[in-house]
Write a structure and sequence with these properties.
It is a single chain. By secondary structure, the protein is of the alpha/beta class. It has one domain: Vaccinia Virus protein VP39 (Rossmann fold), CATH 3.40.50.150. Strands 3, 4, 5, 6, 7, 8, 9, 10 and 11 form a nine-stranded mixed sheet that branches. A two-stranded antiparallel sheet has the order 1-2. β8 and β9 form a beta hairpin.
Length: 261
């Protein structure tokens, strides 16, 4: 099925060097394979972490979400779990290149490595594969397919996150809006104080992505927040991004994207 992923690491010639957070981070990403966009940046910006707190990024890929969080919150302790050895190695290299601490564990969340089973985290974050392959076509590149095509059910991601988060700690997912019913169903079993922040592409459009947060042992009622607007204007303008001022602050200047209080 298309190209195969190197089992150990990417050669430098296979990578592009891409700027995130207005150039604060320069991240190596495969030219062919899974490439992070704004989604992990938005996820990282939404986490209410403080210096000294511990964060676990499930399925960290090349490390974009964890490194964006580490850049925004100096002193936060970030660990990433990644099943694909080449991407785990890339995350370590990206952390070193940006002089940021990111402890990356190679392993599968369905069979959590012992080093992680023995730990609890203040926050767990995840950007799980978006596409249910019973209803969509697999990507040709194996690395991209592992990142985008659902191999494990969303319920397994939620269960793994809930096991690793400390009591009263937060679990936050970014996911396609059409997968929210599946994600909510699983979250209601393992987490409380659920809240959803829709990410609206443009005013008058339906949300394509959502952020869902829950807390272990939380007892507050469900909250559906007003949507976060990503782009200005009614339609895409050729050659321009036209993010809202608030979104630009998140993407360019490492600002927080807080859930409304």
């Amino acid at each position: 099925m298309g190209s195969t992923l190197r089992c150990d690491s990417f050669d430098a010639t296979e990578l592009s060097q891409d700027a995130f957070l207005g150039g604060r981070l320069v991240i190596g990403q495969p030219k062919d394979g899974y490439r992070a966009g704004v989604d992990p940046v938005l996820l990282a910006a939404s986490i209410p972490a403080r210096a000294g707190e511990r964060v676990l990024d499930l399925g960290c890929g090349g490390g974009v979400a964890g490194l964006c969080l580490a850049a925004r919150v100096p002193g936060v302790l970030v660990t990433g779990l990644e099943v694909q050895p080449a991407y785990a190695d890339l995350a370590r290299r990206n952390a070193e290149a940006n002089n940021l601490a990111l402890d990356v564990v190679t392993g599968d969340l369905s069979n959590m490595p012992d080093t992680l089973r023995q730990q609890q985290f203040d926050h767990v974050i995840a950007n799980p594969p978006y596409f249910d392959r019973r209803k969509s076509t697999a990507a040709r590149d194996m690395g991209r397919e592992r990142a985008m095509g659902e191999g494990l059910a969303l319920a397994d991601w939620v269960r793994a996150a809930a096991r690793r988060v400390a009591q009263k700690g937060s679990v936050t997912f970014i996911q396609r809006a059409d997968r929210l019913p599946d994600l909510m169903a699983a979250a209601m079993v393992h987490l409380g104080s659920l809240e959803v922040l829709p990410l609206i592409p443009r005013r008058g459009r339906v949300a394509r992505l959502v952020l869902l947060r829950g807390r272990k042992g939380g007892r507050a009622g469900f909250r559906l927040h007003d949507g976060w607007l990503l782009h200005e204007g009614p339609e895409h303008v050729q050659g321009g991004e036209k993010y809202t001022a608030a979104t630009s602050e998140v993407l360019r200047n490492a600002a927080a994207l807080p859930f409304p209080v």
